[in-house]
Amino acid sequence: MDLLENEEIVIKRPTAGSYVKGRHVAGVPEILTCDASVQPLDGDDLLLLPEANRNMDTLKWYSETEIRIDDYLKRASENVAQINTCTIDSVVDDTDYVCTINGTSFTYGSGTGATALSIVAGLYALIHAQAAVLLVDATDNLDGSYTLTSAVIGEPITITVDANQSAVEDTANVSKQYRVLKIKDWSSHFIPHYKAYGFLLEED
Amino acid sequence: MGIRLNQALEDGIYDWARLTLPSNVSIIWDKPGVPRPDKPYLLLNFSSGPVKVDGGEMAYKQLDTWTYTWRKSIALSVSIIADEYYLRYMTQLLNSLDCELYYLELQKVGFACWGYDGPWDVTELIDSQFEFRVNASITLSYGEDIDYELGEIHSVNVNGNITDINA
Asked: Which CATH superfamily is domain A7-79+176-200 in?
């Protein structure tokens, strides 16, 4: 194991969610970062997989962090986090400034004597408070603009702003994720070594 | 959200079941690959339909558009999965179709109950444990309006001269 080169991976683990009017609503996924050794499959590994998955782009993942079935695995080298910068173009008193991220709207009323800095500070505070739920990191650039970065590599974010602001995509999202199909626990001598087989997902 | 047919109709079914069953029985619409709640729970699904059951009615709506009102029927599959009292819960559910107070929840969204088949005990051995469950199929009907543009010809332009018209 130690001879195999480790690389950074992100695990996106679905959570139980809840039922609303009898319909299942997915929960906010748990995000873990760990190191893993990612290897191609050999012939014996292929035989362990369901037949339909043998000819898919399946990889083997060894990690000291537990990997579970139905986890989504992303290699840091193959995924890029989306980065957007939003700028206050015009400062207007007593106006609502709205930024909608992944369908959730954040509204800041500018009040009187507003400046671009005060509007950004207000929006930043609102967004930052929900960052963990939205899986988006917000940064106040202190120059009348704020930057929104996807907290999980390869997870796209959708951003819309009102007419007094503009949003520019600095870095596009690049996504390639594998879903865990089968796991084998190789833990021994109190050293946890997990082995998982993941297969490449089509775009969600 | 996993809406199958129509959110209002499906919410009406949920409200009827919620009013009928005790609060410890969860009610869910079937969806593969998502965690099930703890037992006991009611599993809802449409097992067949909707199908048009008669000729329906046709009414003028506006120029070039007619509204067809069709009567549709759909089979609602209801399954109770519970370690105990599963037949009792199912009986409560089916009895409620003859009790106005409960049935009203279905009528409010436009459903009429045409009867039901079952219940069938479909208890199964899963791995090494029995899962106790009972299933029934309730036939519901509802009205559906469909606007239909007929493509009528209202005017004709003649490109040229009309030289003769024979009466």
From this structure: Bacteriophage SPP1 head-tail adaptor protein (2.40.10.270)
